[in-house]
Amino acid sequence: MPGGIFRWCFIGAGGLAHQVAGQITAAGLHRIASVYTRRLEQGMDFAMQYGGMAYRTAEEAILAPGVDAVYVCTPHNSHYSYGKLALELGKPVLCEKPITVTAREAEELAALAREKHLYLAEAMWTWFSPVANQVREWLDQGVFGEIQNVLAHYHLNVVKGYSRLTDPTLAGGALLDSGIYPVTYLYRLFGMPERVQCAGTLENGVDYGEEISLTFADGKTWPISVSIRDFQGLEKLVIEGTEAKVKLMFFHGANQVTLVRTGGEKETFRGDGSLRNEFNRVAEEIAEGRTESWWVPLRDTLAVMRILDECRRQMKLVYPFETGLPESDFA
Known about the structure:
With about 325 residues, the chain is an alpha/beta fold. It contains ten helices and 14 strands. The strands form two sheets. The chain has an eight-stranded mixed β-sheet with strand order 8-9-10-7-11-12-13-14. Strands 3-2-1-4-5-6 form a six-stranded parallel β-sheet, sandwiched between helices. A hairpin with a 2-residue loop joins β11 and β12. α8 packs across α10. The radius of gyration is 20 Å and the shape is globular.
């Protein structure tokens, strides 16, 4: 990696932060320089396990000696505020998905990053990894032929394991936590939909699942099904064309994909689906002086946020810290 060891400030020290820190520090290319979480004791435990120092304030952690970039992995409702703080303090930012709660907030962060000539990217694991990019390459090359069927399911029973998912004050729920993966996948393959339809199940201010249909410029409509409290359909992506097809399980972090041609010939592509790709590539881009990711461009992040805003508008999903529904670009 250019520049040697890359040093991170972690804002957040929950389960995902532990998963990330364990993977990236084991490879020896990354170190944790600092960590901030609202509970200092939790931050100190995290620092003892992965290195660095825990700080009492986010500002102190962001400005700690040796910090090359800030990784925000807090609950959704605070992504915007911590991302903005880091940019204002002059640090590049990799922010967990969704980058913010609304498209308007995401646009403000993007504008601030551009104003300050600082790197900003959404930590969209899937599109920093090789497998999803290979699927898109096959599509761009016309390998599938005419697309006849696309199906994206993301059903995982995770309600009991993650209390934040059922907390509307943290912007919990299925759409922003899970639905963002299939929505992003279909957007990256087929572009911005012309029409979005979304019907969801809301309870106590949180969406537990939704059925989404995206209609694209060619008139074709592809369905997305999302749930955080059942395993019906599991996590899978199916693309069927006149010339070839793929069925991809665990598509948001897959290690391999097999293309099956109509004649029965199979082609398997393998690539590391771990979180290391994301952090290695972000570190490389920052070291190269880039202010935006080639792998996860801000224009794509902003487009997906607009789709999610429209889904929320149709479901009438408003979080307690909001004054109303998000604006929508869709008629």
